[in-house]
Amino acid sequence: MHKSRGFTLVELLVVIAIIALLIGLLLPALAKARESAKATKDSSQINQVHKAMLIYANGDKDNELPIPGKIWPEWYQNGGTTYVGRFGQERGNVNNAHNLYAVGVAQEFYKPEILISPVEVSDIVKRDEDYDYDKYRPTAETYWDNTFTADINGSQSGHSDDAEAWGGERPEDECNVSYAHLAIHSNDIGANGSSGQENRRRTRFWVNYARTGVPVLGTRGVQSGLTTGTRYEKSPTLRMLGPEAQWNGNLCFADNHMESVDNFFAANYMCETEGGNLPDNIFNCEFECSDDDKWMQADAWLIMAFRAKDAGSSFGTGSTSRYDRLDP
């Protein structure tokens, strides 16, 4: 009779080496598949948020996506009586990212978790775990939870001059949103209610009948759309999708189609005074045609706005938007 025997030490080591080799070959592929799955989920979430906003627009008399200043306007007053729900004029100074996203949560078009990207890299971006849905009380003139924050650099500074737009005790070093949005500054109304510049960016693309061409939601980008220098190279947004040496993003366009892009020039802008149809940096408000107000142009401009343009105000891109803190 032959006696059975186990593996020799050499045979066992060979088996272990083969297994280690296979694991070494499979791990990069698994990591790549995991990254791809996260990118797909990120794209889906952005698309779902925009779909929810389109549903909101279907019930809006102007077919516009949510605009905080029109949801909470300056209501008509006469003889000391305020007629809530009648003849409201847009309250432009509340059109910031905090209130824009808080509106959708308050009216339950989407949940707070969908606003946090699966490829998020910032440690201050956190889901709002205790959103106060009871704050939505239109007859009491409260329309969203004012503690909801979209301040991506976490400083929560710069609001002392506008308590109404700020509206509450927002936590420091916390941001409840991952995504940038189309600039939705209010129309510039002149003295005595006279018409000023129209926000053509908003009237053309922040509606439910917009054509393709301009992104309205997407992965946030580098400050002012810079493509070189320290602000680009050390921006954490480069680590969110794709290789770290190059920014990559998921963009939802006005017609609700999604695109995965690897540069900031995902749109074009027709401006005869600037030389015709030109590549448009989606993170920079760079075009000014004729005598129009630059901030009201119809070029693409995705931001995380902490302050909005109001009647007669003027400012640069740095004073309206927040950007990620740079990597060390």
What key phrases describe this protein's structure?
328 residues; alpha+beta
Task: Tell me about this structure.
It is a single chain. With 328 residues, this protein is α+β, with helices and mostly antiparallel strands. It has one domain. The protein is 25% helix and 11% strand. It has helices at 9-58, 68-71, 97-106, 163-166, 200-205, 230-233, 317-320; strands at 76-78, 81-83, 179-182, 215-219, 249-253, 258-261, 267-271, 276-280, 302-303. The strands form 3 sheets. It has a 5-stranded antiparallel beta sheet with strand order 6-5-4-3-9. The N and C termini lie far apart (71 Å). The model is unreliable at 189-195 (pLDDT under 50).
CA-to-CA gap between the ends? 71 Å
Task: Give the biggest beta sheet.
Answer: 5 strands, antiparallel
Count of DSSP-assigned helices: 7
Spans of at least 5 consecutive residues whose pLDDT stays below 50 are: 189-195
> How many structural domains does the protein architecture include?
1
Round the mean pLDDT to the nearest integer and report it.
85
Spatial strand sequence of the major β-sheet: 6-5-4-3-9
Strand content: 5-15%
Output the helix-strand order. Answer: HHEEHHEHEHEEEEEH
Compute the number of strand runs. Answer: 9
Shape: globular
Helix content: 25-40%
Q: Radius of gyration in whole Å, from Cα?
A: 24 Å
Structural class: alpha+beta
